[in-house]
Amino acid sequence: MTMPADSLNHDSIAVTLTKEKVAARFPSAIATLGNLVRIPGIAWDAFPAENLEKSAEAVAELFRSTGVFELVEIRRAEANGKVGAPAVVARRAARNGRPQVLLYAHHDVQPPGDASIWQTPEFQPTLIDGRIYGRGAADDKAGIVTHLTAIQTLVEMVGENFEVGISIFIEGEEEAGSPTFRNFLDANRDILEADVIVVADSANWTTTIPALTTTLRGLVSQVVEVQTLDHAVHSGMFGGAVPDAMTATIKLLSTLHDDHGDVAVEGLHSSKASDLDYSEDQLRTDSGLLDGVSTIGTGSILDRMWTKPSIAVIGIDGMSVAMSSNTLLPSVKSKISMRIAPGQEPEKALELLRAHLLKNAPFGAKVTFGEIELGKPFEVQSGGWAKLLANNSLSAAFGNESVDIGIGGSIPFIADLLEVFPAAQILVTGVEDPDSRAHSPNESIHLETLRGAMIAESLFLIKGNDLRVK
Known about the structure:
Number of domains: 2
Oligomer: single chain
CATH topology of the largest domain: Aminopeptidase
Helix content: 25-40%
Distance between the termini: 9 Å
Shape: elongated
Structural class: alpha+beta
Largest sheet: 6 strands, mixed
CATH architecture of the largest domain: 3-Layer(aba) Sandwich
Radius of gyration: 24 Å
Number of helices: 13
Strand order of the largest sheet: 1-4-8-5-9-19
């Protein structure tokens, strides 16, 4: 549905009042965020499942406490004979032709990683210089608290009889690859179906400039084994005549990039990124690139990070230095993670990667393929009223014009949302900023950026309550 642009603008008085309401709630919201951070809910088999249960129940209770939903439940789906992690769903149906808005976030978190690198306790929220540190503080418990605060602010501004519909989906296994996500959507379609889906799991351009994510790269992950011998042999007796699997693996992996650092797999798609100013100095600051180490690839930095393919070798199973001996290894496994540009089908990209590896196998080494993971890229195809309203809401909340950005990472489940709810407009929004360090030690959320996200989502729901879309 096309709407006049003027109908999507915010009244300055409403913006001021919304900011005041969020400011009054902000200390409570930060305390709620801290309570969630203290729960180490990790959806990996190696970690206690009871923490995920505790996390889901805490989140469910938060949305029950609003008193606005017809239903708030913890549900699970099953895939490949395995029951998935607990997710929280809630629904309040739209009335009188107002839009139904689905608010998504996830309550599970990454493992803490190396404790020695953390400057604060991993699951103890700690305030330092305007940032709260702790695993999940940014990814994605800040998203949960943003949704909660926006609903509470909507009630304060409009009243308990508001007409915009709100559905909630707080996933419990996003960091584990969302294995039951598609089955969950199919089983809970009646609760989750919406006109607009707000995915609060991305980032802003800076701490003061808000953004909508309009492109995401897809993912192709491939485990590959290189074998040269049927058993290990003495490196002194046979070295120089017999190729070992580690040498063959290193030579094979080195063919994945050309001399400029561009991906050398033929046939992969590339496109152009947004024309935003992003310098090499800023890249070095944001990434921690060491002095003297050059960047890789050609084209603009944002092209390289958002809309061109990239490859990283994220794991090798060989022999550790501590356990090494004078032995030629018979086989070595490695894991290749390839990000693909918007517009690229992951199945085709996998074919191209495998063809490259087989073609470039050194010494006639035997190459076999193991586990894979595929995730589709995402690109906003058209504007739509929801995107325009979201841009207006972000600009009003932050006091700076919202920009459209890409993200080099992947959110594969967005493709499932598009397939199950093809009529829905999808908004990928941000509670994070470039220094949030999601997935890394010292993860944190910038408090003023979080406040801006809360104000923006509140404004979106308040204006949504005035719109007729059906």
